[in-house]
Amino acid sequence: MAEIEIKKGLVGVIADETKVSEVMPDINSLTYRGYAVQDLADVCAFEEVAYLLLKGELPNKSQLSKFQEDEENIKAIKKVSKSSKKTNDEHYVDNKKFLDEMIKWKKEIREAIS
């Protein structure tokens, strides 16, 4: 009967593969899309890293501005959606449908880039 090797923890266990991040043991680093997380933390704003994760590249100034504007619009929609529920159910339903479409759109983008 063959002897079974028992490993401690998750050494050598691959849960899944992704293009988004990679652990680089040789340099003791985690990378996002090829960039060391430490470097990103030093020079990038949160929104720049979010753009990188979603779109696969760091944004230029124009792309970053548009991305930030889109995120602010989504936040505003969520806020209106929550307040509408308290005051007028009909408006809440319309806002919820729109918000659901926005979330669906974001999921489609994430699936397309992974």
Detail the topology: elements first, then pairings.
Layout: E1 21-24, E2 29-32, E3 35-36, H1 37-43, H2 46-55, H3 61-87, H4 89-113
Antiparallel strand pairs: 1-2, 2-3
Describe the structure.
This protein is mainly alpha-helical and 114 residues long. It has one domain (21-113). The chain has 4 helices and 3 strands. It has helices at 37-43, 46-55, 61-87, 89-113, and strands spanning 21-24, 29-32, 35-36. Strand 1 (21-24) and strand 2 (29-32) form a beta hairpin. The longest helix is centred in the middle third of the chain and has 27 residues, at 61-87. It is extended.
Unreliable residue runs = none
- Which sequence of strands runs across the widest sheet? 1-2-3
Strand content: 5-15%
Q: Secondary-structure element sequence?
A: EEEHHHH
Q: Tell me the overall shape.
A: extended
C-alpha termini separation: 42 Å
Which structural traits does this protein have?
single chain; three-stranded antiparallel β-sheet; 4 helices; extended; 114 residues; mainly alpha; 3 strands
Summarize, please.
By secondary structure, the protein is mainly alpha-helical.
